[in-house]
Amino acid sequence: MYLKFYSSKSYLTAMKKTCKSAMLNRIWQASRRAVNLEHSPPHVFACSQWQNGTKPATFYLIYRWIVFLTVLCVGISSFACQRLPRLYDGPKVELNYFKWFIYFTNWGYLLIIVQAGLAIAVVHRYRAQKTFNIPCEDEEIPMSRRQRTPLLCRTYWLAHTVATDLAFVITLIYWTLVHDPRIHDINTLNLLVHGGNSILMLVELMVTAHPVRAAHAVFGAGAGLTYGVFSAFLLVGWRH
């Protein structure tokens, strides 16, 4: 009888361990699915949520080109029109145009340009595609057996996600902590770079059809951490 009780106890212990392992595995799989850049069907990255059909609409292609050319022109203007603030009265400083690349604002705006360019590439890819395979995503299918989302779509999704996060953060930080009305001018370029960025990415969220995952906020946080480390190394280098 003791042996029978011991065997039952061992069986229950083994079952608990098995259930615990299965539960942890499901949690891990769910976390991976939330963070990864896989999505089916992938053609949604080339479409607007306001269109009908699976092929990218012409109006969306036009919209994508307008966005890309606009942000590219603003970015070039931001780089070319660097100057000291009009009310600056400190020591004379010689402008170094390449310092444009060390500012967080410009990192964010470069990402907006990159994601706009990648979006055009995605749209053109799927407009040239004749047929669309639209599988239903089955949550029970292991990730290793799923068809991979094309690299172009994953890269665009990553750039779009990080650009969106950084745009909102940059706008908030600039207008609450950085902007000094005694020094900084409120001109068109300043408004476009520090306010238009967030407005554009908000419009993008309302126009694009691809999903938004809360777990992808880790990518934006990673970009912010990367800039923090970069700034620390830069500061140490300047001091030496």
Question: How does the SSE layout of this entry go?
Answer:
Blueprint: H1 2-35, H2 58-80, H3 104-127, H4 151-178, H5 188-207, H6 217-239
Tags for this model:
(African queen) hypothetical protein, membrane, transmembrane, 240 residues, Rost, mainly alpha, transmembrane helix
What would you note in describing this structure?
By secondary structure, the chain is mainly α. The chain is 63% helix and 0% strand. It is built from 6 helices and no strands. It has helices at residues 2-35, 58-80, 104-127, 151-178, 188-207, 217-239. Helix 2 (58-80) runs antiparallel to helix 5 (188-207). It starts with a helix and ends with a helix. Mean pLDDT is 83; it is low at 1-6, 22-30 and 136-140. Keywords: Membrane, Transmembrane, Transmembrane helix. One of its GO terms (cellular component) is membrane.
Write the H/E string, N to C. HHHHHH
Structural class: mainly alpha
The first-to-last residue Cα distance is 78 Å
Number of strands: 0
Mean pLDDT across residues? 83
Largest sheet: none
Low-confidence stretches: 1-6, 22-30, 136-140
Helix share, percent: 55-70%
Measured by DSSP, the beta-strand proportion falls in under 5%
Transmembrane segments: 61-80, 100-123, 155-177, 214-238
Protein name: (African queen) hypothetical protein
Organism: Danaus chrysippus
Keywords: Membrane, Transmembrane, Transmembrane helix
Give a summary of the structure in a few sentences.
The chain is mainly α. The chain is built from 6 helices and no strands.
